[in-house]
Model the fold of this input.
Amino acid sequence: MTALEEAGTRHRPEAAPGPDGAPGAPRPPLPWWRRMVRDRAVLLLALPAMLVVIVFQYLALGGNVIAFQDYQPYLGIGRSLWVGLENFSILFSGDPEFLSALRNTLVITLLQTVLVFPAPIVLALLLHSLVSNRVRQWVQSVLYLPHFLSWVIVVAVFQQVLGGAGLINNFLRAHGWQPIDVIGNSDAFYGLITSQVIWKDTGWATILFLAVLAGIDKSLYEASAVDGATRWRQTWHITLPGMRPIIIMLLILKLGDSLSVGFEQLILQQDAVGLGVSQVLDTYVYNQGVVGGYWGVAAAVGLVKGVIGLVLVLVANKVAHAFGEEGVYRA
Done:
């Protein structure tokens, strides 16, 4: 029985005993205000987080109205002119800069889905296979560290190692070899940012998968070993099926955020490689709105990006249900 099923069992209304001690009719559920009084301690603990989500997530949605205005900050939303769907015309007029940003976003999204998403799964399996808990904890601590570094530091580290005057190129020059242009090479940019994401976030992303691996029943491995199953077959028939629900859930959430591919990471490296390969939808919104002053166009692109992410989540969740998985939610 899963944790969700146990929770549902706990909150299921109990049947009132009949006159002879046999189960009678189920008790009616408590009204909502009685449940709030009963759970007031939990609600008070959750109140600060709820306020943050309401203010910065839900109330902020009202700002999307500027996507239908010729918004001017000094006029505000109330006095800016309404232009209807004019700001959305850039999505259909074939603007080269927008199409370039869309293409780069899709390419980076594909690379991160194929290469970055499976990386913590593989790393979690490798860490889980370590026999010594002390070695495992030490390796995990080392791998977690890059997650707590800002993108400014991460980009600076890669520049110090791979830059024109970096560690590797200085070593190559010292031995009479030609330096390798990585940081300023637009052809190597996609591989560079993918490796940066893997280095920074893979270790931290393994936490959830390691927790799932720790919850798999050890008797399943023992029984399969008695039947002569190899380590590979145990992984394929026990470990991966045990991880499948969380993998599907995270993949669905990843699809919802798939068009957001790292604003800070990319904006810091645009000057080195140019906008041709580094301009994505997030940086396009920034350059159009904050830098260029076209706030309505930037808001329109951001709104469409959010709607596409929502549709991807809903569709992927339905597909997961069709294959018998829980997905993110069940209607």
Q: What stands out?
A: The chain is about 65% helix and 5% strand. Residues 5 and 11 are 10 Å apart (CA to CA). The mean pLDDT is 84.
